[in-house]
């Protein structure tokens, strides 16, 4: 089967990570073509046919839409899989001009108000039940993102490099943007005897550093910046906290659970389906977040037992093999229709 994957952005994050890993696994089963920004070329398996096209310029750019249409016509895929809103909008726009033999698959990676383009696809894959809410398309499935982890062991001195030598350690990972609400987490640890390690870069970094200074908690909070050793940081932390206002699927949550590290999260995505419900707190609720962190610290060994079901759920659903198997099943099913 010839499969064409389309990514329209040029950013770095969970979406791009998912796209790369899915394509590199699918090529073991099918002929895979990728249409994406040139910057991603070297990240793909040599067996993948890479087509460089910068779709980030605008989803209504007539010239770009024509180039996309022409490429798809040359490739002649049986499956055309568009990832996230921009690519989905562009494929939906040129759909009337595409061969009716091509089956269209869309991946929805976050909660969106406007879903009209997704209604035009033969099947929609959502990274959580939450992101599919409001979608009228009956042909939809939840496929959780898969995570590839090496065999990682704890290292008692690993966090020394961040000036963290002891104590109860919280890690928080993500883009330093307002939607992640790291300011809530920073405020939550002010009165607690903990260490907070924030991993990531973003436009709010200076603002968050200023907040730490204003609260006079420089000794409690460390900013690690962008890191490629996130799993090593997570496994050497006591808990992982997600304080987001919105989240489609959290790679950090998946990695932490696969590593056996408890996750405390706001009520975003499918957290209530995955984590012990008592450790899912309302969005932007400072006191709930603070009290749960304190409880986790005081009853840590007891809490670990409560997370066992979540750890097992992660092993079943959050692996790359599980993700690819589910996607292959969807492809096979819609091609037969």
TrEMBL record:
<dbReference type="InterPro" id="IPR001296">
    <property type="entry name" value="Glyco_trans_1"/>
</dbReference>
<feature type="domain" description="Glycosyltransferase subfamily 4-like N-terminal">
    <location>
        <begin position="13"/>
        <end position="150"/>
    </location>
</feature>
<dbReference type="GO" id="GO:0016757">
    <property type="term" value="F:glycosyltransferase activity"/>
</dbReference>
<dbReference type="Pfam" id="PF00534">
    <property type="entry name" value="Glycos_transf_1"/>
</dbReference>
<dbReference type="Pfam" id="PF13439">
    <property type="entry name" value="Glyco_transf_4"/>
</dbReference>
<feature type="domain" description="Glycosyl transferase family 1">
    <location>
        <begin position="166"/>
        <end position="293"/>
    </location>
</feature>
<dbReference type="InterPro" id="IPR028098">
    <property type="entry name" value="Glyco_trans_4-like_N"/>
</dbReference>
<keyword id="KW-0808">Transferase</keyword>
<protein>
    <submittedName>
        <fullName>Glycosyltransferase</fullName>
    </submittedName>
</protein>
């Amino acid at each position: 089967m010839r499969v064409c994957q389309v990514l329209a952005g040029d950013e770095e994050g969970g979406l791009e990570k998912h796209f790369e890993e899915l394509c590199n696994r699918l090529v073991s089963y099918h002929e895979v073509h990728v249409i994406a920004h040139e910057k991603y070329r070297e990240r793909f398996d040599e067996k993948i046919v890479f087509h460089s096209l910068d779709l980030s310029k605008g989803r209504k750019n007539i010239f770009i839409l024509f180039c996309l249409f022409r490429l798809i016509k040359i490739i002649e895929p049986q499956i055309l899989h568009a990832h996230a809103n921009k690519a989905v909008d562009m494929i939906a726009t040129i759909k009337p001009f595409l061969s009716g033999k091509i089956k269209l698959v869309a991946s929805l990676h976050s909660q969106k108000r406007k879903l009209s383009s997704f209604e035009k696809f033969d099947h929609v894959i959502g990274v959580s039940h939450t992101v599919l809410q409001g979608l009228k398309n009956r042909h939809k499935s939840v496929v959780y993102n898969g995570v590839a982890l090496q065999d990682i062991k704890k290292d008692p001195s690993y966090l020394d490099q961040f000036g963290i030598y002891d104590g109860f350690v919280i890690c928080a990972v993500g883009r330093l943007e307002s939607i992640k609400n790291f300011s809530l987490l920073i405020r939550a640890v002010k009165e607690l005897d903990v260490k907070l390690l924030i991993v990531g870069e973003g436009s709010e970094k200076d603002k968050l550093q200023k907040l730490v200074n204003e609260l006079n908690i420089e000794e409690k909070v460390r900013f690690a910046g962008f890191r490629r050793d996130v799993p090593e940081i997570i496994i050497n932390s006591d808990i992982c906290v997600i304080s987001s206002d919105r989240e489609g699927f959290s790679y950090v949550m998946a990695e932490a659970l696969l590593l056996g590290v408890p996750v405390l999260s706001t009520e975003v995505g499918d957290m209530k389906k995955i984590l012990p419900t008592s450790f899912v707190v309302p969005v932007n609720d400072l006191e709930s977040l603070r009290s749960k962190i304190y409880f986790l610290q005081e009853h840590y060994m007891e809490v670990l037992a409560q997370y066992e079901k979540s750890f097992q759920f992660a092993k079943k659903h959050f692996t790359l093999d599980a993700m690819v198997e589910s996607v292959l099943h969807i492809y096979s099913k819609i091609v037969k229709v």
